[in-house]
Design a protein that fits this description.
about 70% helix, about 150 residues, binds protoporphyrin IX containing FE, Globin-like
Length: about 150
């Protein structure tokens, strides 16, 4: 056995072991990603995102702090676009087909209070659905920089 290990087979064994170790090393990040649920899954996938958007708009269109600009919206269109956007941001593989944030909010003079009011609605909707903190924070962090294109134009 000892002789065999030191014999001609040893090189092949070592190469096989190194190859296996490399393969494991290379595959670890990919399998870790695959086994972790993406943020999209944590939001509940397509159904979850649709329900989140619907609840967000229910609140935003009825709350006196946020409802001002929603008087004449095309709600099905907004639900679709917002759903696409959240799906894309959370890794669901959608492609957002709507206008830029600057274009779609231009002319409405949206205030900071309206912006933070809507963010608060989203936070509450996500909490009500027990969306994990990491997913909630990831989404809110992605939306925060959009403020500069949404408020005050
Ligand atoms: C980060 C925060 C926000 C995001 C991600 C967002 C996202 C969007 C998206 C994707 C659209 C549709 C664009 C299109 O159809 O091409 C839209 C439109 C619109 N948003 Fe926002 N929005 C945000 C904040 C706000 C706030 C704070 C208000 C007002 C309080 C607001 C009011 C509207 C209105 C009135 C429309 C137009 C709907 C229509 O004309 O049918 N949004 N927004």
């Amino acid at each position: 056995m000892l002789l065999n290990a030191k014999g001609p087979g040893r090189g092949r064994t070592r190469i096989a072991l190194i190859t296996a170790a490399l393969a494991c090393g290379l595959m670890a990040p990919a399998s870790a990603l695959a086994s972790e649920p993406s943020n999209y899954a944590a939001l509940g996938g397509a159904d979850g995102v649709a329900q989140i958007v619907s609840a967000l708009l229910d609140r935003s269109t009825s709350d006196p702090q946020t409802r001002r600009t929603f008087a004449k919206i095309n709600r099905p269109q907004l639900e679709k676009r917002l759903g696409q956007q959240i799906c894309q941001l959370s890794g669901g593989g959608c492609v957002y087909e709507g206008e830029s944030m600057l274009l779609s909010h231009g002319g409405m003079k949206i205030t900071e209070s309206e912006f933070y009011g809507m963010v608060e609605h989203l936070r509450e909707v996500l909490d009500a659905r027990s969306v994990p903190l990491a997913t909630k924070n990831a989404l809110l962090a992605q939306l925060a920089p959009m403020k500069r294109d949404i408020v005050g134009h």
